[in-house]
Amino acid sequence: MLHAKAIHAGVLLLGLMATRLGAQTPAPPPNTGGPNPPAKKTAPPGLPPEVLKLLGVAPPEDPAAVERGTKEFVTNCAFCHGSSATGGEGGPDLVRSVLVMHDEKGDKIGPVILQGRPQKGMPKFPMSQAQIADISAFLHAQIQKTGNRMSYEIRNVITGDPHAGEAYFTGAGKCNTCHSPNGDLAGIANKYDAVTLQSRFLYPKTFTFPGMPAVGPPPPPTKVMVTLSSGESFSGTLKHVDNFSVSLYDSSGEYHSWLLDRNPGIKVEIHDPLAAHIALLQKYSDTDMHNVLAYLETLK
Amino acid sequence: MKPFRHLASASFFAVSLLGQGLDSALLLKAPTDTWPTYNGDYSGRRYSTLSQIDTANVRNLTLAWVYRAVTGGGNFFGAQVKSTPLEVNGVLYFTVPDHAWAVDARTGRELWHYKWESKGGIHIGNRGVGIYGNWLYFETPDCHLISLNIKDGKERWNTEICDLKEHYFASVAPILIRNHVLVGVSGDDLDVPGYLESRDPETGQLQWRWNTEPKPGEPGSETWPNQEAMSHGGGMTWMPGTYDPELNLYYLGTGNPQPVMAGKGRGGDDLYTESIVALNPDTGKLAWYFQPSPHDTHDWDAVQTPVLFDGEFNGEKRKLLAQASRNGYFFVLDRTNGQHLLTKPFIETNWAKEIDARGRPMRDLKKDPASDGTLVSPSSGGATNWPPPSYSPDTGLFYVSAEKSYSVFYLTDLGDKPEGWGGVDKDAWSESYLRAIDYKTGEIRWSHDWGSSGFALSGLLSTAGKLLFSGDISGNFMALDAASGDILWHVNLNANVSNGPMSYELDGSQYLVVGVGDSLYAFTLPRR
């Protein structure tokens, strides 16, 4: 039902310059993912280790060592260097420290910890090699957390007014032309985390990194009608269109394709079911966007 | 003796394919039988004076050869040829991260393949090589500058140009000016300062270094709140620059300030990030600057090629510099002194409030990244990106692969001293274009809409055959009438153009070479 309705959301009449495309091919890797997607809600998955390596992301530190190192750091170091090691009263930032970045398992920070830096007011800390290695693991984990934006947590996303969002949904946004809170959107807030939901209502693309599973259902197919100069016409689901050709599957599943320059007078009408989403991108204020999200979050 | 040499000597036509280095005088001429530097010549116009292939015969273009770059596996992305090959004495030299090749420019047959054992770094792309005499230079993701013998691909030396541990990496095509190898650095994950270095072509030794950030007390330091922010301020030198031999100035665009999306700890314009700078290539001294994006918070590097050409502006003949910048604005400057002449958007955006008296688009603070997200156009990918633009002196048009896009920018580090990126953006939607800009007015003369299924990453080439070569986002490579934008020829190569197309003439035939994914395709006209 949704599909049939959505087709009317946008109609593009194109001649030789037919270029409206559905989201058919993968986009560049999105800056998404994260180690702990919320339970039961769909979030884009993290990238596989071989990709992370090519993106220069170091393998994670041993979590047990990081946990031990965190305690050591908070007890002994945080007073001067801050609890997140980004610097504090008197102690320098250790996350953007060249010495720490060059450290491996405590080989660079060890001498500093053991001997102190008396001229800068840092006392000696008598620690075992194991304790030093744990602090090193904690600091490298902090560096990774800071330097790997794929691991960033987006928080406090839902700030809008749900009532204003509902008014926009049924008013200026005309979202209810295609969508219904009791129909296709029933329980939508349970399906996605807030960031994914905000992305999907703006534009419900489903592709993610090549080879990774898609997030959410695919958008309704793009419909196309091709009319030849003879008057004969074909309609169906768009397979591909560019400046040179158009192709479709008709209702019986048959494939058809045409070269535009070999068919003078060819008319290509593309019904992009997501055209209303694209049009709204240019109209939303940030407040509108936040309000719509807040409203969708009530649809549990 | 290599089998290749054997074949060459056995050939009926005794053609010298190997053994000749680059005559540096060719760097000062139009690229015809040689493509001696990243952009073909120093101007960055990517304009070939060759005219054998023209608007009348381009529909007869035929495939001359294909070369597939095989890296030997292990690369999740597969080899992506983003480098523009150099062509010297009948041999093409190009790269992907950690790999360099020499390929016969007439036949597409491999002469050698060099592989670097990587210690890490970001492997998103490599822009290619620089050549000095018999020596080739390229950068690796793990921060090395490698010098190879162009005859056999044997390594002569390697030297570190950045610190991998600080999250730098290296991807730029080195530019040779006299005996200076100009090398830039990449990386903006952990708040490191950008710089450009000049290295000795014989030894790799440092000759000079220009730092993106000034030192405390120097001009420009007043655009940072404190020394710590300035010393972590970013401004990578991601792309090759351009050069005016008469003025002896090297023009370079610099990258975004860091932390990338969280500007709270670096209030001010953040010079010389996201700036076009003019440097003396003998000393590295700054002559002038212009900043397309003061205090950027959206990752819109201003590294796009500063294209040099002479032309009329307001009725006066001038030495010009033009950049279609990642922030969506087209800038024209007087390249003798950096005087601002024109600022015009080349795509719709929603982030700037006004153009200030100095010609700089000033950001709308409401469009800075926020914890609950701001909807911004363009996305962090920008209104254009690294793929090289082109300028044709025949049409007076500046051509650019452009992107209209929306993305939600989230601030993730809400502290007073953010570190790293401090935020992320989530792409919503984008649409790709090829646009022709009249440099005198900034008006869009013509535009092609390629649709919204990908990202416009095609480099461009214009020629004296009155042609413009481009890719779309549907795997087509095409020739357009450079004046009207009419598409005259195309071929579906099954993947998108991934580099800047280039052209050269050998044995009386003009070749057109384009990188598409892991392959180079060469086209020429059929022989009579």
Care to describe what's here?
The complex is a heterodimer of chains A (300) and B (528). Chain A starts with a helix and ends with a helix. A six-stranded antiparallel β-sheet of chain A has the order 1-6-2-3-4-5, with no helix packed on it. The longest helix of chain A is centred in the middle third of the chain and has 19 residues, at 129-147. Chain A has 300 residues and is of the alpha+beta class. Chain A folds into three domains: 2-12 and 20-48 and 155-218 and 275-296, no CATH class; 63-147, Cytochrome c-like domain (Cytochrome Bc1 Complex, Chain D, domain 2), CATH 1.10.760.10; 223-271, Roll (SH3 type barrels). Chain A has helices spanning 2-6, 49-54, 63-76, 78-81, 98-102, 109-115, 129-147, 162-170, 188-191, 194-202, 275-281, 286-296, and strands at residues 12-14, 223-227, 233-241, 245-250, 255-259, 267-271. In chain A, helix 3 crosses helix 7 (129-147), helix 8 (162-170) crosses helix 12 (286-296) and helix 10 packs across helix 12. In chain A, strand 3 (233-241) and strand 4 form a beta hairpin. Residues 1-39 of chain A have low confidence and may be disordered. Chain A has twelve helices and six strands. With 528 residues, chain B is mostly beta strands. Chain B has a single domain (35-524), classed as 8 Propeller (Methanol Dehydrogenase, Chain A). Chain B is built from two helices and 36 strands. In chain B, the strands form nine sheets. In chain B, strands 1-30-31-32-33 form a five-stranded mixed β-sheet, with no helix packed on it. In chain B, strands 25, 26, 27, 28 and 29 form a five-stranded antiparallel β-sheet that branches. In chain B, a hairpin with a 6-residue loop joins strand 13 (195-199) and strand 14. Chain B is globular and about 70 Å long. Mean pLDDT of chain B is 94; it is low at 1-18. The chains are: A alpha+beta (300), B mainly beta (528). Chains A and B meet through helix 2, helix 5, helix 7, helix 10 and helix 11 of A and strand 27, strand 28, strand 29 and strand 33 of B.
